[in-house]
């Protein structure tokens, strides 16, 4: 039996764990035998996610936390250490867009409110950086661990209508590379920092942009599919294998990398 991909008994913290992306990743880690604590911004969503995840495994806990609040994150850190004694993996799935941060078809960049732009950048960039600072410090003391950040196709291509999100995800990739060398050189080569870059998946935040009320594809969706060689949207569960791989010993010599999970979107010129 090949145990390189085994993460049984490992402890994972998943930010944004009450959302579609984060809860799906948390479920994948639980099915692989890990212990998971999910972090979410709203108690009702955390409770709903926990109810579903506990049907998979009892080795799961959840807490409300603002990923932009260092002290709140430190409180979660203390809770995790008290419960399980260590943190082996950090998955930064907190992020996304907000209505004011996405331009409508009739708007241009000068119509965007600066405060909405700031909110999107803060959530996606600092909402990744701050958890790395708090939980990465545990890994530095342990001399081991794996961090998986979440980038986006918006960091690869100048996708229209989402300027703040694109800027933030581009910065997340740069920070991923920077933190990877920092942790390996100054603390341990057994601490790895990588990212995944999901392609296009249908979720609550983008459903109205990609799917018409009658279930047909919007014009934007048709453009996405035309540039995706696999000619389909991804299923959210198709992220889980890559996350497990990057957390496991199978990826022991991979750090500072971003893995595209996009059906070929980033590789295709469209012609």
TrEMBL record:
GO terms for biological process: carbohydrate metabolic process. Belongs to the short-chain dehydrogenases/reductases (SDR) family. NCBIfam families: PRK08277.1 (NF006132). The keyword Oxidoreductase applies. SUPFAM superfamilies: NAD(P)-binding Rossmann-fold domains (SSF51735). The keyword Oxidoreductase applies. Pfam families: adh_short_C2. Keywords: Oxidoreductase. It comes from the Bacteria. One of its GO terms (molecular function) is oxidoreductase activity, acting on the CH-OH group of donors, NAD or NADP as acceptor. This is SDR family oxidoreductase. PANTHER family: 3-OXOACYL-[ACYL-CARRIER-PROTEIN] REDUCTASE FABG (PTHR42760:SF115), SHORT-CHAIN DEHYDROGENASES/REDUCTASES FAMILY MEMBER (PTHR42760). It comes from Candidatus Phocaeicola faecigallinarum.
